[in-house]
Prior knowledge:
Alpha-Beta Plaits
Amino acid sequence: MMKRASLRIRGNVQMAGFRTFIKNVADSLNVNGFAENEKDGSVKVVCEGEEEAIKRLINSIRENSPSFVRTEEVKAAYEEYKGEFSSFERHGIDVPGEGESEMVALMRSFDKKGEVMIGILGSMNETLKGVKGDTSKMLEKQDMMLEKQDMMLEKQDETIDAIDRSKEEIVTEISSLREDLKSYMEEKFTRIEHEVEAIKAKIGMV
Protein backbone atom coordinates (compact mmCIF):
# COMPACT_ATOMS: atom_id res chain seq x y z
CA MET A 1 0.00 0.00 0.00
CA MET A 2 1.31 3.43 -0.93
CA LYS A 3 1.69 5.84 1.99
CA ARG A 4 2.96 9.32 2.80
CA ALA A 5 4.91 10.07 5.99
CA SER A 6 6.25 13.16 7.72
CA LEU A 7 9.33 12.64 9.92
CA ARG A 8 11.00 14.94 12.44
CA ILE A 9 14.50 13.84 13.53
CA ARG A 10 16.22 15.49 16.50
CA GLY A 11 19.74 15.20 17.87
CA ASN A 12 23.16 15.93 16.43
CA VAL A 13 21.86 15.64 12.88
CA GLN A 14 22.85 18.81 11.01
CA MET A 15 26.14 19.71 9.28
CA ALA A 16 27.07 16.04 9.24
CA GLY A 17 25.94 14.83 5.81
CA PHE A 18 22.83 13.29 7.37
CA ARG A 19 20.45 14.38 4.59
CA THR A 20 22.72 12.76 2.02
CA PHE A 21 22.56 9.53 4.00
CA ILE A 22 18.73 9.73 4.10
CA LYS A 23 18.58 10.40 0.34
CA ASN A 24 20.81 7.41 -0.45
CA VAL A 25 18.67 5.07 1.66
CA ALA A 26 15.43 6.48 0.20
CA ASP A 27 16.73 6.05 -3.36
CA SER A 28 17.63 2.42 -2.65
CA LEU A 29 14.07 1.79 -1.36
CA ASN A 30 12.35 3.69 -4.20
CA VAL A 31 10.95 6.23 -1.73
CA ASN A 32 10.38 9.79 -3.03
CA GLY A 33 10.23 13.07 -1.13
CA PHE A 34 12.68 15.47 0.49
CA ALA A 35 14.84 16.09 3.57
CA GLU A 36 15.64 19.56 4.87
CA ASN A 37 17.29 21.18 7.88
CA GLU A 38 15.08 23.14 10.28
CA LYS A 39 16.12 26.23 12.25
CA ASP A 40 15.70 24.39 15.57
CA GLY A 41 18.52 21.97 14.60
CA SER A 42 16.26 19.10 13.58
CA VAL A 43 15.82 17.46 10.17
CA LYS A 44 12.43 17.24 8.50
CA VAL A 45 11.60 14.44 6.05
CA VAL A 46 8.45 14.17 3.94
CA CYS A 47 8.29 11.03 1.83
CA GLU A 48 5.99 8.80 -0.20
CA GLY A 49 6.25 5.18 -1.23
CA GLU A 50 5.29 1.67 -0.24
CA GLU A 51 4.44 1.52 3.47
CA GLU A 52 6.99 -1.25 4.09
CA ALA A 53 9.70 0.76 2.30
CA ILE A 54 8.95 3.84 4.42
CA LYS A 55 9.18 1.70 7.58
CA ARG A 56 12.57 0.40 6.45
CA LEU A 57 13.73 3.98 5.82
CA ILE A 58 12.68 4.99 9.33
CA ASN A 59 14.41 1.94 10.81
CA SER A 60 17.65 2.77 8.94
CA ILE A 61 17.52 6.33 10.28
CA ARG A 62 17.10 5.00 13.83
CA GLU A 63 19.49 2.06 13.72
CA ASN A 64 22.02 2.55 10.93
CA SER A 65 22.86 6.26 10.88
CA PRO A 66 26.53 7.19 10.32
CA SER A 67 28.71 7.05 13.44
CA PHE A 68 29.21 10.84 13.44
CA VAL A 69 25.43 11.40 13.64
CA ARG A 70 23.54 11.03 16.92
CA THR A 71 19.77 10.65 16.61
CA GLU A 72 17.91 11.28 19.85
CA GLU A 73 14.32 11.18 18.59
CA VAL A 74 12.54 10.14 15.38
CA LYS A 75 8.85 11.01 15.18
CA ALA A 76 6.75 9.73 12.26
CA ALA A 77 3.21 10.61 11.19
CA TYR A 78 1.51 8.77 8.33
CA GLU A 79 -0.83 10.47 5.86
CA GLU A 80 -2.76 9.61 2.75
CA TYR A 81 -0.65 9.11 -0.38
CA LYS A 82 -0.72 12.13 -2.71
CA GLY A 83 1.78 11.20 -5.44
CA GLU A 84 3.43 14.59 -5.03
CA PHE A 85 7.08 13.55 -5.59
CA SER A 86 8.92 11.87 -8.43
CA SER A 87 12.33 11.59 -6.71
CA PHE A 88 14.02 12.23 -3.37
CA GLU A 89 15.77 15.58 -2.90
CA ARG A 90 17.81 17.47 -0.31
CA HIS A 91 16.15 20.85 0.30
CA GLY A 92 17.85 23.96 1.63
CA ILE A 93 21.49 24.47 2.62
CA ASP A 94 23.45 23.86 5.79
CA VAL A 95 24.49 26.75 7.96
CA PRO A 96 26.80 28.56 7.32
CA GLY A 97 27.45 26.95 3.91
CA GLU A 98 26.46 23.95 1.86
CA GLY A 99 30.01 22.75 1.26
CA GLU A 100 30.86 22.90 4.94
CA SER A 101 28.45 20.07 5.78
CA GLU A 102 30.45 17.53 3.85
CA MET A 103 33.72 18.89 5.21
CA VAL A 104 32.49 18.55 8.80
CA ALA A 105 31.22 15.05 8.03
CA LEU A 106 34.58 14.14 6.56
CA MET A 107 36.44 15.55 9.56
CA ARG A 108 34.21 13.67 11.97
CA SER A 109 34.73 10.51 9.97
CA PHE A 110 38.50 10.99 10.19
CA ASP A 111 38.23 11.60 13.94
CA LYS A 112 36.26 8.40 14.38
CA LYS A 113 38.70 6.40 12.28
CA GLY A 114 41.56 8.00 14.19
CA GLU A 115 40.08 6.81 17.49
CA VAL A 116 39.75 3.29 16.10
CA MET A 117 43.36 3.36 14.85
CA ILE A 118 44.60 4.60 18.22
CA GLY A 119 42.76 1.73 19.89
CA ILE A 120 44.26 -0.78 17.46
CA LEU A 121 47.77 0.65 17.91
CA GLY A 122 47.37 0.56 21.68
CA SER A 123 46.36 -3.09 21.50
CA MET A 124 49.31 -3.85 19.21
CA ASN A 125 51.66 -2.07 21.60
CA GLU A 126 50.46 -4.21 24.52
CA THR A 127 50.84 -7.33 22.39
CA LEU A 128 54.39 -6.36 21.40
CA LYS A 129 55.25 -5.72 25.05
CA GLY A 130 54.00 -9.20 25.89
CA VAL A 131 56.04 -10.75 23.07
CA LYS A 132 59.13 -8.79 24.15
CA GLY A 133 58.68 -9.98 27.73
CA ASP A 134 58.28 -13.60 26.65
CA THR A 135 61.35 -13.32 24.40
CA SER A 136 63.42 -11.87 27.25
CA LYS A 137 62.37 -14.74 29.52
CA MET A 138 63.28 -17.27 26.83
CA LEU A 139 66.70 -15.65 26.34
CA GLU A 140 67.29 -15.66 30.11
CA LYS A 141 66.42 -19.36 30.29
CA GLN A 142 68.68 -20.03 27.30
CA ASP A 143 71.55 -18.20 29.01
CA MET A 144 70.99 -20.25 32.18
CA MET A 145 71.04 -23.47 30.16
CA LEU A 146 74.28 -22.42 28.44
CA GLU A 147 75.85 -21.59 31.81
CA LYS A 148 74.86 -25.01 33.17
CA GLN A 149 76.25 -26.64 30.05
CA ASP A 150 79.56 -24.77 30.51
CA MET A 151 79.70 -25.92 34.15
CA MET A 152 79.09 -29.52 33.09
CA LEU A 153 81.87 -29.29 30.49
CA GLU A 154 84.25 -27.84 33.09
CA LYS A 155 83.44 -30.69 35.48
CA GLN A 156 83.93 -33.17 32.64
CA ASP A 157 87.37 -31.68 31.91
CA GLU A 158 88.25 -31.86 35.60
CA THR A 159 87.17 -35.51 35.72
CA ILE A 160 89.26 -36.35 32.66
CA ASP A 161 92.29 -34.60 34.21
CA ALA A 162 91.80 -36.54 37.44
CA ILE A 163 91.60 -39.82 35.52
CA ASP A 164 94.80 -38.96 33.62
CA ARG A 165 96.60 -38.14 36.88
CA SER A 166 95.42 -41.37 38.46
CA LYS A 167 96.59 -43.34 35.43
CA GLU A 168 100.04 -41.76 35.63
CA GLU A 169 100.27 -42.53 39.35
CA ILE A 170 99.26 -46.16 38.77
CA VAL A 171 101.86 -46.59 36.01
CA THR A 172 104.51 -45.04 38.24
CA GLU A 173 103.57 -47.33 41.13
CA ILE A 174 103.70 -50.41 38.88
CA SER A 175 107.11 -49.35 37.60
CA SER A 176 108.30 -48.86 41.16
CA LEU A 177 107.00 -52.31 42.14
CA ARG A 178 108.86 -53.88 39.23
CA GLU A 179 112.12 -52.24 40.25
CA ASP A 180 111.67 -53.29 43.89
CA LEU A 181 110.84 -56.87 42.87
CA LYS A 182 113.85 -57.05 40.55
CA SER A 183 116.20 -55.88 43.30
CA TYR A 184 114.67 -58.32 45.75
CA MET A 185 115.03 -61.30 43.38
CA GLU A 186 118.63 -60.42 42.47
CA GLU A 187 119.54 -60.15 46.13
CA LYS A 188 117.89 -63.49 46.89
CA PHE A 189 119.65 -65.29 44.02
CA THR A 190 123.00 -63.90 45.15
CA ARG A 191 122.39 -65.16 48.68
CA ILE A 192 121.42 -68.62 47.39
CA GLU A 193 124.60 -68.80 45.31
CA HIS A 194 126.71 -68.01 48.39
CA GLU A 195 124.96 -70.70 50.38
CA VAL A 196 125.50 -73.27 47.62
CA GLU A 197 129.24 -72.44 47.46
CA ALA A 198 129.51 -72.82 51.22
CA ILE A 199 127.85 -76.24 51.15
CA LYS A 200 130.17 -77.40 48.37
CA ALA A 201 133.20 -76.35 50.42
CA LYS A 202 132.04 -78.33 53.42
CA ILE A 203 131.56 -81.52 51.50
CA GLY A 204 134.85 -81.18 49.67
CA MET A 205 133.50 -80.53 46.30
CA VAL A 206 135.62 -77.45 45.88
